[in-house]
Amino acid sequence: MSTTNPVPEAGPIPGIFRAVEAVEATRHATLGLDRGVGFGFASGINAIPLGLSEVVAASETPVVISAGDVPVPVAVLGVRAGENLLVEEQDGGWRPGFYVPAWMRCYPFILLPASDAPEKLVLALEKESPLLVDGGGEPLFEDGKPAEALQQALRFAAAMRATLQDSVAFGRALRDAGLLRQQEAQLDFRAGGKVRVDGFLTVDPAKLDAVPDATFLDWRKRGWIAPLYAMLHSTPRWGRLLDMAAERGTG
After folding, report:
1. Is residue 11 within 8 Å of residue 73, measured between CB atoms?
2. With bands split at pLDDT 50, 70 and 90, how would you rate the model's confidence at 191?
3. Which InterPro entries does this UniProt record tie to the protein (predicted)?
């Protein structure tokens, strides 16, 4: 299955995808989708890229900007490497009251540029995903044709990719305007001990105040002001993550 997109770049691919392959009726005819298994696949992911339309909803935890060639908003999900505090240890459910990022809802599917035509996007899947069941769940194919579950996956992946592309434009604009600064956080656990979190960027409030009026007006027209300030206001959420770590007994 495929769709086309004139702007294929959509930011970094999260670590929940490790071994993907294009969806094909001949190869995946008997597979079904079972989302009832929960989010255990993401238990070791402590940060996830966000589409621009997600930033406000996801700011219940810290939202920062990724370092690297393609800076994009990222939701921080844990304070240690390999730790996702929003995935419940008991049943793999998502912590109630917290936003579920689109990448988590799109998994195990992903749109990727075709190897033979970069302007063409093909729907792929994580072949070892626990959400894919041979002979069970919602079928991906019926009579050799994409079933409703697969059609929905393609529509969702396409919509998600569009807002991820918006994130790329947003992050690059902040970088090009000189608003981003390297940041690190030293977090003190209730039970003792500290952890240093680094490798991310934040918006410098002083430099934001100095942005020319014309630039700020342009950003407002693009719908960038709400996510911009949501990121700034999410800074105190580091304390919320520490509280969750303490509840889990890891902090």
Report:
1. no
2. low
3. SapC
